[in-house]
Write a structure and sequence with these properties.
This protein is mainly alpha-helical. Helices cover 43% and strands 0% of the residues. It is globular.
Amino acid sequence: SKEFPGKFKEVPWGEGDVDFLGTLKTLKRIGYEGTFLLEMWSENEENPLLAIEEAKQFILPILKEAGY
């Protein structure tokens, strides 16, 4: 099996390899109208509520640009 040298969790929003805009545009194009969930790990966060707010501020403009 191929080893993955990257980091799987606790990656700050926008610093990983996920193409959020491309993915959301594709979901919009195929007619997805369901729920979106931001999965986060908070056990090492000093201020989990701040981390949630930062994730929200990261994703909302991308959702809007994708047409949601």
